[in-house]
Every structure is written in structure tokens, then in C-alpha cells.
Amino acid sequence: MRPALTDELIAAGRWMAAQGLLPATSGNLSARVDRAQVVVTTSGGDKGNLQPEDFLVVDIGIDGPPPSRASAETPLHLALYRRRPDIGAILHGHSIASTLTSQLLADGGRIVLSGYELEKAFAGVRTHEAAVEIPVFENSQDMAALAAEVSAGVAGAPALLLAGHGFYVWGESVADARRHVEALEFLLRCELEKARMRR
Amino acid sequence: MRPALTDELIAAGRWMAAQGLLPATSGNLSARVDRAQVVVTTSGGDKGNLQPEDFLVVDIGIDGPPPSRASAETPLHLALYRRRPDIGAILHGHSIASTLTSQLLADGGRIVLSGYELEKAFAGVRTHEAAVEIPVFENSQDMAALAAEVSAGVAGAPALLLAGHGFYVWGESVADARRHVEALEFLLRCELEKARMRR
Amino acid sequence: MRPALTDELIAAGRWMAAQGLLPATSGNLSARVDRAQVVVTTSGGDKGNLQPEDFLVVDIGIDGPPPSRASAETPLHLALYRRRPDIGAILHGHSIASTLTSQLLADGGRIVLSGYELEKAFAGVRTHEAAVEIPVFENSQDMAALAAEVSAGVAGAPALLLAGHGFYVWGESVADARRHVEALEFLLRCELEKARMRR
Amino acid sequence: MRPALTDELIAAGRWMAAQGLLPATSGNLSARVDRAQVVVTTSGGDKGNLQPEDFLVVDIGIDGPPPSRASAETPLHLALYRRRPDIGAILHGHSIASTLTSQLLADGGRIVLSGYELEKAFAGVRTHEAAVEIPVFENSQDMAALAAEVSAGVAGAPALLLAGHGFYVWGESVADARRHVEALEFLLRCELEKARMRR
Predict the structure, then answer these.
(1) Chains touching chain B at 3 or more Cβ pairs under 8 angstroms?
(2) Is B23 close to C182, i.e. CB distance below 8 A?
(3) Which residues of C touch D199 (CB under 8 A)?
(4) Is pTM, for the whole model, over 0.80?
């Protein structure tokens, strides 16, 4: 594994923590090492201050309980890597905007972002007139079931939300995933603010 | 007393102040030294920049006015340590979310947190389907009366709120208490935001 | 003049700027040197990065236009020092909470803060049951008229607001004034949030 | 070109990024070099960490597609420099307040700021009783059309908004433009908050 890859995840964790996106030791981060393996953060601990020993290399093909030190949410990461060969990195965090919009604004299992210039921060989006769909799934402690459900519903999306839980955001690289986190968080705050004003 | 214990409280104070949880020299921090004693911050001063001399060792058994330099709220800390042998550290701060939710959203003397993944940051909580109850008490300047009331009403809870005043949050260690503060503050902000949207 | 006095104001300016209370080169800071004189920031410039040459010593007795380099709002500072011999320092800043509460929530020319533990951060306040009255004045570009009006209406108050403009907060020392700024800003944010929820 | 000019833009980018005004590699910055040329940031990249090589010198007179490495929004900058010889620097960023106020509060194609002391931060404004008009334009991916429209509608204004996109703010110098950004963002947040409370 390239040391640069964990260095990028360590920096991403520091940045996410500074933005308040990894409260109370929540969240987990991963990146694809090669066709067969990913590196993923271990369970618990402060992801704002990750060390090289806070990562595990895991086989993408594992379709059952994760290795003992791995985050309980590892199966969700692996399912996404299997389903979407274009994904190179996944950043999972918790924010007030993603927690609330996923609980309150998911219409038909998705939040549609449209009319915002910042949509163009998502890879492949060329105009604010595009409709970027973010799928929203019910939260569950049954990781195998959740992984299967998520895997079936994320074709084409740059991110997903778990209701009352937080966001999973990905990209071809750690840098792309970071840019997507920043754009999604900005746009969900806009949506939450608009919902406030409608009520 | 282990120097490490005051070091942990000094770091917790710096972190809480940076989060805006100790405005205007408010708040106080403590940790259990052994079965008979706790260390607690002295009255006044900026808890974001604590020094070793800003702590007092106090007998847990004292059931009356605190020593002269001790914070006026010391009896509340002591009552909690006596009532709950599992408590190793207590962090008391003020935040806009805890001030307002305690005044506006306490239903039957408590705020119930449910449906949030971040509840799992509280020790012993395994699912977002759990209902975490945070007791809310009327504020009072009569510390002896308040300590008695609080002592009778905190069995099992990870924190309490004083209406219009702020939060008391605890844990087995200073690290646990910090994680609980971060989770509680996040969840109270979610609750406040939901209340805004309902009205 | 004690160099320590300008050092305290320089530190207060750095802190206020970091809190977003001195946007766009706004605000001004002063402290009483002795019975006859005060030191006050000069006009313009970034008060988050004050230098010793950014201060002027001005006679408290001047009851007309301020010296040429002095802030246009110097007459307001001087009127407060003349009216209230207990004032040792004045911090004037702009915040969204003080701008909006002064425009929207002033009832009978004042905002009354009550039921908050943090009221006790104001010198002389012993209980959350106290009613701390913050007078609110119409904004004006006529500094002489404004100074006269303000001078007549601030007996006993720890601060005043100018509608759509910002706050003037004082204390016996720079440290007291800082603590009062922090408490006032916190409490005005609470009041603004409550007003949001009522509407 | 004076190196000082890019240094000022680098510092402005660092400051804007720290304020959250350049999310997800958005935004672009420019300054007038002389009567014929401007310096402008290249496309993409994190404008919070600009390097000297992240700038291009471009002829103000170019009235077509920008040079290949230049930001796609360069034509908008150039149109403003041509239309307004008083403009020495332009800062373009995205914020939640400018995104939402431009979508929700533009009345007759403009937002009028009045009754705020902080209006005086805009060059030439002497009183809070002034009405500062900020023109708001529909967003477009057709830069040539947008540049023409904007050019026809910004006489006298210190800034413009693009609906759902963000702000363009200018001044005679980089320092003036920064002060204008800070004042505009503050005042748009006030307007957004007032709109919330009205609904």
C-alpha cells in the first residue's frame, strides 16, 4: 500500500474533524489500495488525529462480518467498493445538516439538489440546472442488510445519507471525496435553511 | 493525585472553551482522585486556560458549603460523585443549545433523544432506537437543595441539564465525559433545529 | 499611561475579531487612563491587529468634535466615562445578534435579560432571577446628540445597543468588559433564537 | 506585475477560505495590474492555498473565451474591469447567505440594504440611512451572455449576486474588496435572519 494513501486519509480526517463532521469519535474513512483491497480506519478513537496504526487493510471481497479491529461499518464501505469500481475513497461523517435533512427532507427516498452552482463540484456535473440525486436510506444496526440495500441503490450518485446518522461520500480519489463532502455539506445546509423558511 | 488527571482536565477545558462551551468564565470541571476525594476547578477565571493551581482537592463526603476557593457549584459535583460511583469525571459548561432546549423543550422534566446514530457515543448505548433520557432540573442558587434534587433524579443518565443554565455531563474517565459532551451538544442542536421547524 | 493598558486593549481586539465582532474594520475600544484621560483606538483599520500607534490619548472633558485621527464615535465613549465614573474600559463591536435584537426585539427602548444563569457574569448580578436591562437607542450619525441621549439613559446598565449598529459594553477593567461582551453576545443569541421560535 | 498584488490575493484567498467562502475549490480572485491587464486565478484548485503559479495575466480587452488555464468565469471579471475603471480587485466566492438571499430575497432583481451602520464599510457610504442596492442576476453557464448582462447592470454597486451561485465583490484595492466582502456577508446574514423571522 502506498503510504501516501493513509497520509491523505489522515489529512482528510484532520480536516473533517476541524469542520465538526466527526463528533464524539464517530465516522470512518477508507481508500482503495488496488483491485482486491482497501484500507479502512479501525473502530473508535478520534479520527481527527489518526495515526498509521489506526488503519487496517481489508479484502474487498469479504462479504460477512469485518475483521475484529475494523469499524462495524466496514461492510458498508466494502459493498460500495464492490458495486462501484469508480470509487477510490469513501469518507463517512456525521453533521447536523445531514442528520436532519435525511430525517426530515427525504422525499421518495432521496434529496434532489438543483439550481445551485456548487453542484458543479460533483464530478461530471456541468451545470446548475442538473438534478443531483442523493439517495437516503433508513438507518440500521444490521450492517449486512444495510450494505445490501445501499449497494442496490447508489448507481450514479456521489453520496448517500443514512437517516438520523450521517453521510457517506465518495470520489475517484481522496481529494475528490473531500471536495464532494464540502459541496454536499454546503448544499444540505442550504436545503435545511430553505425548509426552515417554508415552515 | 496523579498529575495526569489535572492535565486531562486542563486539556478538556481548553477544548470546551474553543467550542464556546465556557463563556464568560462560566463552567467548572472535576475528576475523581480516589474513593474519598475529587479534584475540582476553583471559582472564577478562564477555564480555557487552566493552570495546576486552579484546582482544589475536596473530600467527596463534604455535605455542606464548599471550601472557600472552590466553585459555588462544588456541592453539585460532590452529590453526583456520591450518588454514582461509576462517575470518574464531570464537565459542566454553558451552551446556547443546552440553555434553550432546557428552557423550551423539557417535557415532563426530561429531554428524550431517540433515532440518532450518535446516541451510540453514550456509554452502553448500542442502537439508534434506544431512548436516551436527559433529566432537566429547574435552576436554583440554593446549591444544597439543588444537589439533593439532582442526586435523586440522575440514575442511569449520562448527563443532566439545568434550565437556562447549562449542562453537567459525566463519564467513567475525562475522555468519556468529553465524548459525551460532544454527542450531547450535537444532539441538542438537532433537537433545537427540529423544534424551530415545527413552529 | 501604563503600556499594560494598551496591551490589554490589543488583546481584547484580537479576541473580538476572532469572534467575528469587529467586521470590516468596524468597532472601537477604549480604557480610562486616569481621572482626566482615556486611551481610544484611532479611526479605521483592522482592530483585530492593533498596534501601539493605533491609540490616542484624549481628555475625558472634551465635549465636542474628537481629535482628527480619533474614531468618529469617540464622543460616545467620552460621554459614558463622564456619566459613569465606575467605567474603566469600553468595547464597541458589531454582531449579527446585537444588530438584529436591537432592531427587532427592543420593547420600550430596552431588552430585558432574565432567567439565565449567565446573567451572573455581569458585575453585581447574583441570581438568574434578576432582570438585567440593556437600553437600546436609535442609531444616529449625529454623535453629539447620540452621546447626550445615551448619557441620560445608561444608569446601572452593563451595556447598551444602538439599533442596527451594534453593542457598547463596559466594565471596571478591560477583563470585566471582555467578560461582559461574551455574556451579552451569548444571551442576545438566546433571545434571538427564542424570537425565531415564537414566530 | 507587482509581486505584492499576487501576495495580496493569496492572503485574501486564505482569509476567504478560513471564512468558508470558497467551498469545494469554488471561487476566483483577480486584481488590475494596469490599464491593459489583470491577474486572475487559474481554474480549479484550492483558493485557500494559492501559489504564485496559480495566477494568469490576462488582457482586459479580451471579449471572448478566456485563455485555456483561466477560470471559466474570467469573462465576468474582465467585463467588470472594462465597465468600471474604478475597480482594482474582484473577489468571487460562495456562501450560504449569498446563495440563499439571491434565490429567495431578490425583489425586482436586487437586494436593498438599509438601516445598518455596517453599510458605511462600503466605499462612499456615509450613513446607515443610505440604501445600498446589490443587483442580483440569474445564474448562467453562458459566460459571454452573463458578462454582457452583468456589465449593463452594475453601475455604482459595490457587489453583485448570481442567484444560487454566490457573490462578486470589488473595490479600488484588494483591501477594499476584502472589507466589502466582510460587510456584504454580514448584512446578507442579517437579511436572511430577518426573512426567517417574518415567515
Answers:
(1) A, C
(2) yes
(3) 199
(4) yes
In the three-class reduction of DSSP (H, G, I as helix; E, B as strand; rest coil), residue D103 is classed as helix
pLDDT digits (tens, 9 = 90+) for C31-69: 999 999 999 999 988 899 999 999 999 999 987 778 888
| Residue A127 CB-density burial (10 A; 0-12 exposed, 13-18 middle, 19+ buried) | exposed
d(CA D4, CA D10): 10
For residue A57, is pLDDT > 80? yes
Report how far Cα D15 is from the mean position of its chain's Cα atoms. Answer: 15
Residues in chain A: 199
Cβ neighbourhood burial of A49 (10 Å; 0-12, 13-18, 19+) = exposed
Distance CA B85, CA B154 (A): 12
- Closest Cα in chain B to A199: B197
Closest CA to B193 of B53, B96, B107, B124: B96
Smallest Cα distance from D22 to chain A, Å: 10
Q: Tell me the per-residue pLDDT of C83-135, one tens digit each, with 9 for 90 and over.
A: 999 999 999 999 999 999 999 999 889 999 999 999 999 999 999 999 999 99
Distance from CA of A125 to the nearest CA of B (A): 31
pLDDT tens-digit series, residues B89-128: 999 999 999 999 999 999 889 999 999 999 999 999 999 9
Residues D169, C10: contact at Cβ < 8 Å?
Answer: no
- The neighbour count for residue B30, using CB atoms within 10 Å, is 32
Shortest CA distance from C162: residue in chain D: D117
Q: Give the residue from D63, B139, D25 showing the smallest Cα distance to A186.
A: D25
